[in-house]
Amino acid sequence: MKQKKQSKVISISNHKGGVGKTTSAINIGAGLNKLGKKVLLVDLDAQANLSQSFGLKEQPKNIYGALRGDYVLEPITVIHDLDIIPSTRNLRTIEAELSTGAGAEFVLKEIIDPLIGQYDYILLDTPPSLGLLTINAFVASKMALIPLQSEYLALQGLESLLDISSQIKRRLNPTFKIGGIFLTRYDQRKMLNRSIFDSISDSFSTPVFKTKIRENISLAEAPTNELDIFRYEPKSNGAEDYLNLSNEILKLI
Ligand SMILES: Nc1ncnc2c1ncn2[C@@H]1O[C@H](COP(=O)(O)OP(=O)(O)OP(=O)(O)O)[C@@H](O)[C@H]1O
Ligand SMILES: [Mg+2]
Q1: Four-point Cα dihedral 51, 55, 58, 59, nearest 10
Q2: Ligand 1 centroid to residue 19 C-alpha, Å
Q3: In angstroms, what is the span from residue 50 Cα to ligand 1's centroid?
Q4: Mapping DSSP to helix (H, G, I), strand (E, B) and coil, where does residue 189 land?
Q5: Is the predicted pLDDT of residue 157 greater than 90, yes or no?
Q6: To test the ligand 1 pocket, which listed residue (23, 126, 148) has its Cβ within 8 A of the most ligand atoms?
Q7: Residue 191 reports pLDDT greater than 90
Q8: In this predicted model, which residue has the larger pLDDT, 208 or 195?
Q9: How far apart are CA 179 and CA 164, in angstroms?
Q10: What was the pLDDT predicted at 199?
Q11: What is residue 201's predicted lDDT score, i.e. its pLDDT?
Q12: 198 CA to centre of ligand 1 in angstroms
């Protein structure tokens, strides 16, 4: 009999907007896929940037309907061994809808659990908030990875993210943890960028990944071509950095 996989569910999360969550979910997913892993990407953001980056717009079956219980999750294969659960703009009302039912924090876990065993990794791209959807993501995950933009005020707000994580661990998901922080849009030439790396390493007990994702235009261009970085520009700094980060994640979990 074919051995069942033990999916590792990981949230990519930071409530600060535009720090590289979606770019990272896509390219860590594609990186793990390149390293031979079977990956599912789940788009949990009503902006649906992840879905659109693979050319999936307003699909009839999506995360919104599945969270409402209208149908079961149906992953869409975009590349061999890389599947997606797309989002839709309708998702913006889901938090209000879910909160009227019991156990609202567990709905995502309930619908993802039947897929556990089919993938090596399930990556959740979360919205820029610490609302009910992000809490659902943390409840369903083994760990969260935090992209942090290498800029002034990047650390502001990190405290509240760490607070929510410890509440989740205490009250809802005892095995949950922050797996690590990684820097995005990094520019070695900027003194400020280098000092941010030192200050997160010094001020938080959370691990910091060695790999820094450098500022790289190809990473911003790839989604408009509906490609991940390895298919769009395999020789770019972006491809090199996301492959290194994927290798670090592989060793971690
Ligand atoms: N390393 C990078 N180099 C250059 N551009 C980048 C890099 N990482 C992300 N970007 C660009 O920055 C913008 C924000 O990135 P992204 O959408 O991944 O952030 P996000 O955290 O998911 O945003 P949101 O909070 O809105 O969901 C996008 O235009 C993306 O293409
Ligand atoms: Mg995003």
Answers
A1: -90
A2: 6
A3: 11
A4: coil
A5: no
A6: 23
A7: no
A8: 208
A9: 14
A10: 80
A11: 78
A12: 23
Q: What CATH number should be reported for the domain whose range is 8-252?
A: 3.40.50.300
Q: What is the pLDDT of residues 92-148, one digit of tens each?
A: 999 999 999 999 999 999 999 999 999 999 999 999 999 999 999 999 999 999 999
Collapse the DSSP code of 224 into the 3-class scheme (helix H, G, I; strand E, B; otherwise coil) and give the result: helix
User: In the chain, what are the domain boundaries?
Assistant: 8-252
Nearest CA to ligand 1 atom 13: 18
| Side-by-side strand order, sheet with 8-12 | 76-79, 82-85, 39-43, 121-125, 8-12, 143-149, 177-184
Q: Whose CA is nearest to atom 29 of ligand 1?
A: 220
Ligand 1 contacts (CB < 6 A) are 17-23, 45, 47, 49, 128, 184-185, 213, 215-216, 219-220
- To test the pocket of ligand 1, the residue of 12, 15, 22 to mutate (highest count of ligand atoms within 8 Å of its CB) is 22
The structure tokens listed for 133 are: 């959807």
Q: How far apart are CA 133 and CA 222, in angstroms?
A: 27
Using one digit for the tens of pLDDT, what is the confidence trace for 15-43?
999 999 999 999 999 999 999 999 999 99
Beta pairing class for 8-12 and 121-125? parallel
- The pTM is what? 0.97
